[in-house]
Amino acid sequence: MNPDDVLGKAPLFSALDRESAAALRTGISEVELHKGQTLFSEGETGDRLYVVLDGKIKLIRTAADGRENLLSVLGPGEMFGELSLFDPRPRTASAIALTDVRLAGLGHDDLRPWLTGRPEVALHLLRALAQRLRRTNDVMADLVFTDVPGRVGKALLDLADRFGQRTEEGVRVHHDLTQEELAQYVGASRETVNKALADFAQRGWLRIEAKAVVIMDAERLAARSR
Ligand code: CMP
């Protein structure tokens, strides 16, 4: 997708007519990061919101003992860094490039007049926030009610929805996560996650590749993840 289309489909811009979208775009600055570079860290003061144009960003929180929880993986068109816009307090998570990544950044101060002057912009951002809260509730419920293989299955199906490519064999999901990161994503140990993946592979539901899987039987994987 070309970067203009990516931005046009982001919640912020899809609410606007061409002229207004072009006006809002004048405030944007592009940022490029190499894989592994940190954009911002949890606890810092934040004054910008970002839309991913190309590549993937991961959002993580770190416990006092150094363990990491991977909150989300975001790809083209997805937005982050808006919590400190609505609630001006420190960043709630760190943003790190999972691959080489290109981002569009927009200052909170530039954005505020649009929120008050154009209710449709505010509504689109609120919808994006509501979707995030729904997802967070689902993740919390899964941590309580669903076992690790179920959580791994759900995470892979969610990643397949967003990053999957249909191939003859099935849906190829190039998630770019190491097994350690996948474990941080589902809140389990790497060993348990590896065991679940090996079991799925042995049943013929998926094939494991480096930082990717090919899902061959999404139906059975979904049934196991319920
Ligand atoms: P902010 O707090 O400004 O910076 C970190 C960003 O991570 C935050 O805004 C949100 O955009 C994003 N974020 C925080 N928590 C979650 C979550 N649970 N799921 C997805 N994104 C999140």
Automatic annotation (TrEMBL):
Gene3D superfamilies: Jelly Rolls (2.60.120.10), Winged helix-like DNA-binding domain superfamily/Winged helix DNA-binding domain (1.10.10.10). Residues 146-219 form the HTH crp-type domain. Pfam families: cNMP_binding (PF00027), HTH_Crp_2 (PF13545). Keywords: Activator, cAMP, cAMP-binding, DNA-binding, Nucleotide-binding, Repressor, Transcription, Transcription regulation. The keyword Transcription applies. GO terms for molecular function: cAMP binding; DNA binding; DNA-binding transcription factor activity. SMART domains: cNMP (SM00100), HTH_CRP (SM00419). GO terms for cellular component: cytosol. GO terms for biological process: negative regulation of DNA-templated transcription; positive regulation of DNA-templated transcription. InterPro entries: cNMP-bd_CS, cNMP-bd_dom, cNMP-bd_dom_sf, Env_Response_Regulators, HTH_CRP, RmlC-like_jellyroll, WH-like_DNA-bd_sf, WH_DNA-bd_sf. The keyword Ion transport does not apply. Residues 12-132 form the Cyclic nucleotide-binding domain. PANTHER family: CRP FAMILY TRANSCRIPTIONAL REGULATORY PROTEIN (PTHR24567), HTH-TYPE TRANSCRIPTIONAL REGULATOR ARCR (PTHR24567:SF74). This is CRP-like cAMP-activated global transcriptional regulator. It comes from Sphaerisporangium rufum.
